[in-house]
Amino acid sequence: MKKVSLVLVCAFAMVFAVSCAKKATPELCAQACAKKVELAPKPVVENPVDKVAAAFKAEEDALAAEEGNAMAEIQAACDTAAANLTKEEEKAAAVAKCDADKAAKATELAPRKEELAAKKAAAMDAAVKAKAEADKKAAEQLEADKTACAEECVNGRFTEVKVNCQIAATTVEEFDACK
């Protein structure tokens, strides 16, 4: 009988000790929740601005290559024509014709360049807005998660020892192992 009563007294003492343990303050809970968020792996989010820039890079490169090739062809034709000419006046006329041909080709390609630049600017504006909206939603979700975590900590009557352990944790595993 003595053993049974001793066991009961010890059990009541342990329950009393646990229930009387100092509870964490809302401030400590908020610190622990901030630590939890800091330790949690961050989701990889693709930047829409980078996606738009990469998408238009290929088109810009293709247009630049087309312009470069056209100018090289014009220059090659001019060089061939100038090589066969002997008089300075003829050479000067050939150079002037060559410059006029290059200017005409540049004028021909200008609308396509402007259209591409306008499309890219519009897409970039949309991407910047989308990124700002996504960042805003992520920040709101982060605050909501911190608030929910802090409420759980306070309402769950976490002990100060557990919360201090969580604040001191350096990994998610250490954080979760705190009791």
Task: Describe the overall structure.
The chain is an all-alpha fold and 179 residues long. It has one domain (23-177). The protein has 6 helices and no strands. The longest helix is centred in the C-terminal third of the chain and has 68 residues, at 88-155. The protein is rod-shaped and about 130 Å long.
Question: Which helices and strands occur, and which strands form pairs?
Answer:
Blueprint: H1 2-19, H2 26-39, H3 48-83, H4 88-155, H5 160-168, H6 172-177
Helix pairs in contact: 2-4, 2-5, 3-4
What descriptive keywords fit this protein?
84% helix; mainly alpha
Low-confidence stretches: none
Count the beta strands: 0
Average pLDDT level: 83
How helix-rich are the residues, as a percent range? over 70%
Largest sheet: none
What fraction of residues sit in β-strands? under 5%
Structural class given helices, strands, pairing? mainly alpha
SS summary, helix count:
6
Shape: rod-shaped
Brief characterization of the structure:
The chain has 179 residues and is mainly alpha-helical. It has six helices and no strands.
